[in-house]
Amino acid sequence: MEFITTQNFSMPALGLGTYQLQGQEAVEIVKYALEIGYRHMDTSEMYGNEEQIGQAMREVNIPRSDIFLTSKVWPEHLQKEQFQAAVERSLRKLQLEHLDLLLIHWPNSEVPLSETLEALMSAQEEGKAKHIGISNFTIPLMQQAVEICGPGVLVNNQIEYHPFLWQDHVIQEGKKLDLAITAYRPLGKGKVFEEDTINDIAAKYDKNAAQVTLRWIIQQEIAAIPRSSQKSHVQENLAIFDFQLTEEEMSTLSNLRGNERLVSPVGIAPDWDEPELITS
Ligand code: NAD
What we know:
This protein is of the alpha/beta class. The protein has eleven helices and ten strands. The chain has helices spanning 23-36, 50-59, 80-94, 113-125, 139-149, 168-176, 196-205, 209-218, 231-238, 247-254, 275-279, and strands at residues 3-5, 10-12, 16-17, 40-42, 68-73, 99-104, 129-135, 154-160, 180-184, 223-224. The strands form two sheets. Strands 3-4-5-6-7-8-9-10 form an eight-stranded parallel β-sheet. Strands 1-2 form a two-stranded antiparallel sheet. Helix 1 (23-36) packs across helix 2 (50-59) and helix 3 (80-94) packs across helix 4 (113-125). The longest helix is centred in the N-terminal third of the chain and has 15 residues, at 80-94. Nicotinamide-adenine-dinucleotide binds next to helix 9.
């Protein structure tokens, strides 16, 4: 497994996304992923599967310290007391002492950012999270958050990123602020399989479009957290460390990128960075 590293932080480059994985299916697929070599799991209080993920982690014979687990607090819970309660609830459901990474799932303009960030930093000071970060933060929000917390405190921004969404500006600014970037919805929810250019490159390496796309992401030193409930997919998505895309192939995928944002929940999503801004 490769790692994504910044000055003070390191995380396995590939993780298992768990959105929509529920019940016994979630337990089985997380156990399977851990057994075949995944060491990074991504959940959220909103996914409703923290109990199952904790159960899977207990049922495999892998030391807790070898597994990197992320969870997130939903934007309705960003006021100080609600935030503390949400983190405690997550840990209780997981039956764990700490998270490896605790994220604010989405910003919420109705709660002062400083209040949420103080609650986030307190969770870290209390040992409930080894590392802390943000998700779905735009460039100005990311800059404000780092300004409030000071350098080196926040370590990650988890954002939507796949071959159909141009995100260079937020990625570059994040890296400048020493934030590791995690790409969520990395396969565009399966849309990469419809793209001939990606399928052609995949054929050359005897890989598939998901594997080439994940390789393209981690070669940019960005973590990826693809999700599947199918063991064969989970296995395929891990088999991306035995080949390397050429610079030309990297550019071919990069040049596909447009403004196809797939995740933008009404009433929750922030004002996204303008596409004009990013092409300048
Ligand atoms: P994804 O891009 O990972 O696509 C998932 C789809 O691709 C599923 O239908 C799956 O069956 C299919 N798939 C996966 N591997 C495949 C393979 N090898 N071959 C064929 N099909 C394959 O989309 P996602 O689940 O939305 O995103 C991944 C994870 O990112 C989520 O599970 C969640 O953990 C995280 N996420 C975070 C946020 C956030 O706001 N922070 C938002 C969305 C998702």
